[in-house]
Write a structure and sequence with these properties.
Layout: E1 6-15, E2 18-27, E3 30-35, E4 46-48, E5 53-56, E6 58-63, H1 75-84, E7 87-92, H2 104-117, E8 121-127, H3 136-141, E9 146-150, H4 162-175, E10 178-182, H5 186-198, H6 204-210, H7 213-230, E11 233-236, H8 244-253, E12 258-262, H9 264-268, H10 272-277, H11 290-302, E13 307-308, H12 317-321, H13 340-349, H14 355-369, E14 387-397, E15 417-427, E16 430-434, E17 437-438
Helix pairs in contact: 5-6, 7-8
Bound molecules: zinc ion (ZN) (2 copies).
Length: 453
């Protein structure tokens, strides 16, 4: 064997459905060998995994890092938070300001900015809405990891009606990339919200009531029908409803290429959290009920619900506090990139999900859906040497003040006990986080584009 640059020993390697005792040799940032410890050469640079699980590097495919003021998250703080949270790659959403990614030039600009700041590898979504349908193919050429479309009429990549939605789907279908869609029926959301506003409601729960399950369920059903007809690969982001799971299962059973993500907030919290944390727990779609949580966990463990992402949406404390007396005034969203892995590993420890399915939902299947497998998402010879090492026995308490994210004050999980922690993040052979401390370098992260067009 050629002399490796790094050898990881004494791990429990998660290889697809099986867990194998052994180690990994790394050369030039790629996996050079996977073998029993005794078969691996001794080198200067070794990591003893101490019998902990070694997972293929975890990916958060839904974060919002690019906001424009000094106080809000950027690629530097966001990817530090990601590394600290056990992630090795993130995919950033198009943004909603003047720097929003809507064509090849803005995609390239964001790529350059991120290349100078990122601690972990990153992919970039292009926005795809009524105003930039003609730019979709050039963004695919420039390496967009996928496309993001809003059914709500409030961003620069929204659609106003089904004609525009269909046109966007037709055009993204030509690229072969997934179209990741925020699925809520805007007319119904408007109707329910206006009714509550007229009744004088300003309390936190009014937000949840303004977006009942039907808003998402109708949107998912319509998207799958339009997706089937247009040939688009519809991917539902942040699925939150129990009714979404059987609709997804049925479309898959019929052979349609559809997929869905859910998020920790929909797996761990109900709308009751809004009573306690008010505007901080205002998220779109809203937090729901126990039976939604149960259905999403069941869908996740069976594999119907494909993947988990954070939808990390950083706001300032001021932006959220605006909603203290009037929930309609607060921005929707919540930071989650840094707390996702320990929160979910706690559930793995409780038996809710197997470690293999967790690794699939946060790495392998993400990589497959977005066309970067097996460069990412797999422990196999030739893949990028991206690893997340997790200690399932280690316990901790989430402390907002210790988080790397600039939105630390807004976490919904301050004081939560967790068992199961990421203890090391390795990106292309370089350790970027050790024992919760970020030890990587700004600008190390590389742009990740789909392998096939
Ligand atoms: Zn959304
Ligand atoms: Zn989002």
């Amino acid at each position: 064997m050629i002399e490796p640059d790094l050898v990881i020993r004494n791990g429990r390697l998660v290889l697809g459905d099986s867990v194998v005792q052994g180690g990994i040799a790394v050369k030039d940032g790629k996996i050079a060998a996977i073998a029993a410890d005794a078969a691996l050469p001794r080198v200067g640079n070794e990591i003893d995994a101490h019998g902990n699980f070694v997972l293929p590097g975890l990916i958060d495919c839904h974060v919002h890092f690019s906001r424009i003021t000094e106080e809000t998250e950027d690629f530097r703080s966001g990817t530090q938070a990601a590394a600290a949270g056990g992630l090795t790659t993130i995919f950033d959403m198009p943004g909603s300001d003047e720097k929003a990614v809507l064509d090849a030039v803005t995609l390239d600009d964001k790529r350059k900015e991120a290349e100078s700041l990122a601690f972990v590898d990153f992919g970039l979504f292009g926005g795809a809405g009524k105003g930039n349908i003609a730019k979709i193919s050039e963004m695919a050429q420039a390496g967009a990891i996928g496309f993001k479309t809003f059914m709500l009429r409030e961003t620069s990549y929204s659609v106003d009606n089904d004609i525009q939605l269909y046109q966007v789907l037709e055009e993204t279908a030509r690229t072969g990339r997934p179209n990741c869609i925020h699925a809520e029926n805007p007319d119904l959301v408007d109707y329910f919200a206006q009714r509550l506003i007229r009744a004088g409601r300003k309390d936190p729960i009014a937000h949840a009531e303004s977006r009942p399950n039907i808003c998402e369920v109708e949107a998912i059903s319509r998207l799958f029908l339009l997706g089937k007809h247009s040939g688009a690969r519809v991917h539902i982001v942040h699925m939150s409803t129990k009714e979404g799971v059987p609709i997804l299962a049925q479309a898959k059973d019929k052979g349609q290429t559809v997929s869905a993500e859910t998020c920790p907030q929909y797996l761990l919290l109900t709308k009751e959290t809004m009573r306690k944390l008010g505007p901080y727990a205002k998220i779109n779609p809203p937090l729901r009920e126990e039976d939604d949580i149960k259905a999403l966990w069941d869908g996740l463990s069976s594999g119907v619900v494909d993947i988990i992402a954070s939808d990390h949406a950083p706001y300032t404390k001021e932006e959220k506090d605006l909603g203290r007396d009037d929930i309609w005034k607060a921005g929707p969203g919540n930071p989650g990139v840094e707390t996702m892995v320990p929160l979910l590993l706690t559930k793995v420890n409780e038996g809710r999900l197997s470690i293999a399915r967790f690794a699939e939902a946060m790495s392998t299947r993400v990589a497959r859906l977005f066309g970067i497998y097996p460069k990412k998402g797999s422990l196999q010879v030739g893949s990028d040497a991206d690893f997340t090492i997790v200690d399932m026995r280690k316990e901790s308490v989430i402390e907002a003040g210790k988080l790397y994210t600039k939105s630390r004050a807004l976490t919904l999980y301050d004081g939560w006990k967790v068992k199961g922690l990421p203890i090391m993040s390795v990106v292309r052979g370089a350790v970027v986080m050790q024992e919760g401390k970020v030890v990587g370098e700004e600008g190390y992260g590389r742009f990740v584009a789909p392998l096939t067009s």
